[in-house]
Automatic annotation (TrEMBL), chain A:
Lineage: Bacteria, Bacillati, Actinomycetota, Actinomycetes, Micrococcales
Name of the protein in question: ABC transporter substrate-binding protein
GO biological process, one term: peptide transport
GO molecular-function terms, A-Z: peptide transmembrane transporter activity
GO cellular component terms, semicolon-separated: ATP-binding cassette (ABC) transporter complex; periplasmic space
Signal peptide (residue range): 1-29
Native species: Herbiconiux oxytropis
From TrEMBL, chain B:
Protein name: ABC transporter permease
GO process annotations (BP): transmembrane transport
One GO CC term, this protein: plasma membrane
Top-level taxon in the UniProt lineage: Bacteria
Lineage: Bacteria, Bacillati, Actinomycetota, Actinomycetes, Micrococcales
Main location: membrane
Source organism per UniProt: Herbiconiux oxytropis
Residue ranges of domain ABC transmembrane type-1 in the record: 104-294
Compartments where found: Cell membrane
Cross-referenced PROSITE patterns: ABC_TM1
The family this protein is said to belong to: Belongs to the binding-protein-dependent transport system permease family.
Coiled-coil annotated residue ranges, if any: none
UniProtKB/TrEMBL annotation, chain C:
Name under which the protein is recorded: ABC transporter permease
Cellular component terms (Gene Ontology): plasma membrane
Membrane spanning stretches: 7-28, 101-124, 136-160, 180-203, 242-264, 284-307
PROSITE patterns the record matches: ABC_TM1 (PS50928)
Natural source organism: Herbiconiux oxytropis
Signal peptide: none
Automatic annotation (TrEMBL), chain D:
CDD domains: ABC_NikE_OppD_transporters
Any one GO MF annotation of this record: ATP hydrolysis activity
Domain ABC transporter as annotated: residue spans: 3-254, 335-581
InterPro entries: AAA+_ATPase, ABC_Ni/Peptide_Import, ABC_transporter-like_ATP-bd, ABC_transporter-like_CS, P-loop_NTPase
Organism: Herbiconiux oxytropis
Name of protein: ABC transporter ATP-binding protein
Family as reported in the entry's similarity comment: Belongs to the ABC transporter superfamily.
Amino acid sequence: MRTNRWLGVGAALVAAAVVLSGCSNPAGAEDTQAAAGEPQYGGDLVVGLYLEPLALDPHRQGYWETYRVSNNIFEGLTREDTTDTTGPTEIQPALATDWSVSDDGTTWTFDLRDGVTFHDGSDWNAEALDKNVRRISDPTYEFYDESSAAKLKQWFGTLTSGTVVDDDTYQFAFSKPFLGFPRILAQSMATLTIGNPAVWEQYGNDGFADHPEGTGPYKFVSRTVGDRIELEKNEEYWGDEPYVDTITFRIIPNNQTRLASLLSGELDLISYVQPEDVETLEAQGFQVPEGTGSSLLYISYNFTNPAFEDVRVRQALIHGLDRQKLADELYNGYAEPQYSFQPPGNEAYDPEVRDFEYDPEKAIALLEEAGYGEGDLAFTIVVDVANQNTAEWLQSQYKEIGVDVEIVSLDRTSYIARAYGPEENDGLSLDEYGGTYAEWLSQGFAGLAGKGLDPADFPEITGAIDAAASTADPDARIDLWKSAEETLRNEAVVIPTVNLTRYYALGSNVEGFVWPATNWYDLSKVWLAD
Amino acid sequence: MALLQKPSGEALAAVRGPAGSRAGGPRRSGARRRSRARVNAQVVLALVIIAAFLALALFAPLIAPYAPDAADAGQKYLPFGSSGHVFGTDEQGRDILSRLIWGGRTSMVVALIAVAASTLVGATLALVAGFSGDRVAGLIMRTIDVMFAFPVIIAALAFAIILGPGLTVVVLAIVFVATPYVTRVVFAEVKRHRGREYVEAAVSLGAGFWSILFREVLPNVAGQIVVYATGLVGAMIVFSSSISALGIGVQPPEADWGRMISEGAKVIISGNVTVALLPGLVVLVVALAFNWLGDGLNDVFDPHKRRSRS
Amino acid sequence: MGTLKHIGWRLVNILPVLLIVSVLTFLIGRLTPGDPIQGQYARTFSPEQIEGIRDAYGLNLPLWQQYVKWIGDLFVAGGGRSIVQEAPVFDILWPNFLNTLVLTAAGVLICAVVGIAIGTVAGAHHRRFADRFSMLFVQVGSNLSVYWFGLILIWIFALQLKWLPVSGMQSRGGGGFGDLLAHLILPGISAALISMLVLARFVRIGIVQEKQSDYYKTFASQGAGGLSLLGKHVGRNILPPVVNIIGLEIGTLITGVLFVESVFNWPGIGTQLLNAVNGKDYPLIQGGVVLIALCYLVVNLVTDVAVDALNPRLRRR
Amino acid sequence: MTLQVSDLVVEFGTGDDAVRVVDGISFSVAAGETFALVGESGSGKSITAASVLGLLPDSARVASGSIRLGGSELVGLSARELRRFRGSQVGMVFQNPLASLDPSFEVGNQLREIIGLHEPDLPRVSREALAVEWLGRVGIKDAPRVLGSYPHELSGGMRQRVMIAIASLSQPALLIADEPTTALDAVIQKQILDLLRNVIRTTGSSLFIITHDFGVVSYVADRVAVMRDGRLVEQGDREQVLAAPQDAYTRELIEAVPEIGTRFALERAGLPRRLGVRAPDWAVGSGSPVDSADRADQVGGAAPAVPVAGAASGVPRGEAASARPGEPLVVVERARKEFVVGGIGTGESRRSFLAVDDVSLEIRRGEVFGLIGESGSGKSTFARLAGGLLPLTSGTVTFDGQPLSALKGRGLRALRPRFQYVFQDATSSLNPRVSVGEQIVRPLVRFGKAPSVRAGRARAAEVLDLVQLPTGTFDRFPHELSGGQGQRIGIARALALEPDLLILDEPTSALDVSTQAAILNLLLDLREQLDLSYLFIGHNLAVIEFVCDRIGVLEAGRLVDVFDAHELFAPGRSPVTRALLGAILPIERSAVGAVDGELEGLTETTEPQPVAG
């Protein structure tokens, strides 16, 4: 057994936080005149989301917008360091203070944090954790939740047992080595975030989302689907005291309306700023922090279309794409080109790698080689209506290498249905996704399989991914993932495009907001200046 | 969609103006002659506008300074009055003027076909319902109820999903939206004719059901139908902009006024107002022209105004 | 008595329409590609895993079983459970539905007040400048995209003049009735736009016609003034058709309020329905459509009853 | 002078486009007198009346001339200034009592409002009392019920009484009545005229009455003016104008009126039974030197004088006697028709009523069967039942041996050419959007009576000729035709199919008298030429008696009397028949006031008889 190597860092941070909170004066914060830069307590933070969050159930939840809400309510055993804006986020202790893995990489033991209570005051302990684990894995449990289990199967499918060692210690045993586990536990979706078992014992599994309770810095107050979710400060929070008293999440899917609401001061923070609006906002004194989430826009092929069986065709389409120009023109420079399937912020991301650089001559030559003269290769690009502009840009870009592209832009569900059940002449489709965990590569690859890629056709890739996923050697793990990514990259099975460098916008009085290199943020550190 | 105006059955009477005939009013008063001249001027103006836009659409390749899909994203959102792009450029740096010229091809044709189809279907249903027994009329009107009660976007999305996006979907969606309105308006009008003596006379003269509907009643409601249908043209182009915002409809980069409005609306708050304003104005002008044309055509269907023998 | 029987009969008549709407909605949902599970998980999960989740939600049962279950759920289980939101459908829809009613009410009010005002001005000045100007205004208005018009309103009144809020139903930290009203003005106008113009045309024609009627001459011949005549007699006589038009427009508003809700982020049933459609949340779509359809049909029925009640020929019997 | 109109010119439109509808007329109405303005439709008489109070349509205006009321000049006053005169000094009664009250308010409400207009300070209770008083004065006995009623709950006659009360209650110096009885049944018409006479007698008002009916003139007027095409052709005292019209047009109008007994007088004189044809000594003191040329050829030799009511006992000879008995062409047995109307959404409550109640009769081949009754008596419904336009609720209709009531669809349609309709209102029975030629040709082609459209056109030309219309009419649209021309088209369209029976549903009641005369003459001609049978529906007994061989009287859907035309005055007539007879306003060409008693006495002394038929 080895002590988690991040433990030291985490402990240091906790200590720093304690010092910081000691310096501030929570009780008198509202009365004393706070100097600029000095955190203030109180106020209502209003956040504009661009999507309706899904159920506030830790085991059923999906989408980042959901997690941007729910991570204020729920916590996992671990969490990502959301103060880190540059590299891959570090994994910090959350409801577990310490963890270790057996040498064969299959058994994880967690020391649970003491003195933590759920929002209803009941205790957080190994027993509570066990109920969470059983809810998603043990069909004999009274509150076994089939739908949660199905969703969490991705990471917990190899879980063989969960054991209460003592009140503060819990052990997970997997049938295969699973070194990525602590980082997976800090993710948003298909993972084991901790909910209060007392709630499902009282309201049933379906009722949990109406009474979401966890251990997080904010407590659930109310939700009106389609309108807002209101949270209030958890006075009993075990960690640093959050600054704002209440957080209101408003759901404003219309980009223009969300922008206008921020401009008019109805909102303090919005997700998903259109590149077009950055200048408008900055000109009016709004903050549009630079940063990068752990995601990327990528184009994938319809592998059921015979044209893409030829690797030269796939390469040609990458050579034919000027990603720098895409970022500059379409995204007004508020994006950076991507050349790797692992997104920035991923622990296995290597910013130096390059796939097939922009070279239209080469693209034309490759197509020629594959038997496609100018105008011979024609297909449709299928996009979600939100990405229509990118598709249009691609269309004119590919025209330059003699490829005729037709656009089919669809509403979200129809898009998914079409992209993952493509028609014969479909060629490309466009998605955005990513994560900080190296294992994301396997997810991304699984997604490609949904688009008709037969993993059996790419044994090197599947082999490399398997090797990386099941290694028991922590030192080799990241390198294995990197090499898996390289294998995948060389096969040209996907076209990474860009990553947005502006995503959130804030009012001028919003302080303490950090855009970490992951897909959500920590609002407990945000405070409102006068 | 509340996009539809409903000229009442009585609209016609109002257009005709106060008939002083019983009190000995002259057949053709000066006032009417003058308003007739105004109507004519309006119709001519309408025809000129429509013809101009049709000509622009027809000769788009010759007239438009650029190809409608000639994109240069480096030149995007150029403002109105930019050199080389008088009307500015859009999100992809395409010339708005050229796209407006080309856009007429799809927008006007689609709207006309769709409105014609819904008018045909709606008017037929209304005529049949108006002259059928309770059961048939009830069946037709319940069907109309179903269409009315069914949220438009669901229907439009369903068409889009079933058929795949494209022009056909726009046409079908418009037909789905407009048909119940046409039916209701024409039905109300037809009902006014149901008890008329000329219908009874036709029965006594041996006219059959269809003959009464299409040879006797239809000419009497045709003017009304035309007024209503032409009023729909503009509204339906606007409606097509609403559904293209949902990803239904003409696929990019094809130019289409409705799509241009919806794309423009994506950046109104961002400050690129002309991108939305120009197609909006074009649709407005064309719609007004069709409105005026409809009023004029109504006169054509009305022998009171068509002939002026005395 | 006869009237009551008729109302009953009409209520019964609503059922087949609803049934057809429900079957259509159900079939459209199920027979078109895409489903809520795929929508959420296709990017990350393998097809087998997705199939497993579908099983968990009962989406692999035979269609008729799903339909029958849903119809049952409508009556006993709050319309079934939203697959995406994980909550009973009517629990989700009801608050939104009420919000939509609030917006519709505001729209109807604005529609009635402004529409009648424009129509009256035009009708009273038949064929004069005020009439022509109002009617041009009406024609222009009825050819505007509501979506586009709404954004322009926001730009002018909320961002430039800062008179009114942009979106939603309440200001920061909530607000009273006045706050709600402030939030209602712009969406109300947008929602009412087309309907108010329809109404204006109607009122105009009504006034023109009533002014030619014999009773108008009777009162005029007795020295009654234009205004009292217009207000009392003409007003009362065009009331039934006006109520009828307003009723029809309420129906149209309810089924078509989606675009307004989207622009002003009004948390209504249209927004919800669009969400549901985007996520292909079957139970939510079905519940929403049935609710909207029911509402539309009931409004139609109420309108007919109201119009009858306004008819003196029926008052006595 | 109460009203002094001089050189009045009314124009529609302005400038070069202006059309004069009243062209420099002058007349005056003295205090207490009844002045009648007579003219046919389009003559400008109603416009003249409307111009007094400035109630002209928007597009019309007084171009020149003067209208003085009492001492005040009304021309040139603004609407606001005119309002002072409206009601208080001039009351107005309009033609259509069904529409001249606001349908949405109770009668009491409207009366109180109008009283308030004249006496704003009067408290509500007094207004109510005044309203009750005036309803009493116009002969309404149950005033409270009427005050609490909506207009639609009152009969046409009652409504016209209320209108008269409204017009008179401020006791204006002048009461203008614009065709006050045209829309009413004969019986009611007489009551209303009596009432008007009565009212002006008590209020001392002058009465300015607009009418097209010389019977009305004869009954109420002191002085008469005859208007044609915007000009006055003649004016003078009633006796003088009626008895010795100076103008040919006036005479034409008077002679065109069918009167009871005319027919038999003509028959006895051996003259053709046509209107406008008269025995030379008919009009006492007639100074007319020459008949109009087109009529001269019809007028035969001398004819004996015929007393008005004298025919009652006499058995006529001639035509009536020569009427072939004929076998039954149409046999109606126990016909019943129940209508269900209304229901939610229709604006009316759902109810059913019996329009035709157990009627049996037969129409014989070659005869003219007249069916008369007041409005609402079910006569039009009966016509539609008899001609297969409406299904029977029970009973049977047999046409020439074929059970019409049992036939449907194709079978019925095949039989249709044999019985044809002529409707009351030519304008509404002709399709306004189809040229009249087309309307004649379509059925011909449909029934194979014309093998081609070309042949159809030829046949159409024939029938147009038959109804004395130029072939050029073919391409016209109905609105381009006058009422009489329209009715000729209606007849031509029916005749083109060579029917055995024409069902004439009040074919002349919407027409001016001269046109009516022409149409009636045409119908009589056609019957002789084409060997037709007629079912002739009407409400004017004089017309019916003039045209028909046998007469049936309907009341409330029941057939109460059936008799030969010459038996009109026989003792067995039902009270309904007698009431109809009593309501006739003959044109009194000689002494004044003789009219009142004569016929009335007849109706009141005769005993009720059991229902005939």
